[in-house]
Amino acid sequence: MEAEALPLVNILDLKEDVPPRIAPPAPAVSYTGEKFGITVHVVRNGKCQLHGVDNVGTVPAAVTAYLAVHEFKPDLVISVGTAGGFKARGAAIGDVFLATAFANHDRRIPIPGFDKYGVWRIDAVPAPNLREALSLKEGVVSSGNSLDYSKEDWDQLHANEAAVKEMEAAGISWVAHLHNVPFLALKSITDIVDGDRPPQEEFLENLHAAAQALQRVISPVLEFVAGKSVKEL
Ligand code: ADE
């Protein structure tokens, strides 16, 4: 979302790519700059032409990631954004989690082979040194295309051992896997999934604070990864 991306663009002093590096009709918007000796691109999914709101969910995330990987040929992809967190797995509002794995909780295909394909589940690049250096919490990030959850989603979130629930990372993990690009995710918690408040209320209340938490963490993360091999993360 723009509200998640712009604080990063500002703190990193990136400039919007004009003319666009990701060509229309893709609605994605990209920003580029140099930081800590590396080239950094922030790419957001842009706005929906029909509804005027940010494009969210696994489909825009995967399309944007695919186009961005082709255009920018990154050494590392990081999905940075907000998410719901499970207090049973240690999450509190404003925490920033580093993903250990990615899975889907709303792709139910009860046919042998397709059942596992639907859930997908893939490990993130291990980054124990990054986690420790920044004192980040860690856990499985589970993606779906709803802010709330059905009974079936809830059961799969638990089967996935999800600490974090959001709407993009599993789609991007598929794209990163296709291209063999290392993939990490940093997710800041806006709402407690196993709490007692509607997610939309908590999300809107805490979006600004969670985006600021991402803004605080992004420079130290980039400084840490700059010049390191994946094995050193
Ligand atoms: N983004 C922020 N909170 C979320 C939640 N509870 N579910 C999905 N995406 C989110």
UniProtKB/TrEMBL annotation:
Signal sequence region: none
All copies of domain Nucleoside phosphorylase, residue ranges: 24-222
List the Gene Ontology MF annotations in alphabetical order.
methylthioadenosine nucleosidase activity
InterPro entries found in the cross-reference section: MTAN, Nucleoside_phosphorylase_d, Nucleoside_phosphorylase_sf
Tell me the GO BP annotations in alphabetical order.
Answer: L-methionine salvage from methylthioadenosine; nucleoside metabolic process
**Full protein name:** Purine and uridine phosphorylase
What lineage does the source organism belong to? Eukaryota, Viridiplantae, Chlorophyta, core chlorophytes, Trebouxiophyceae
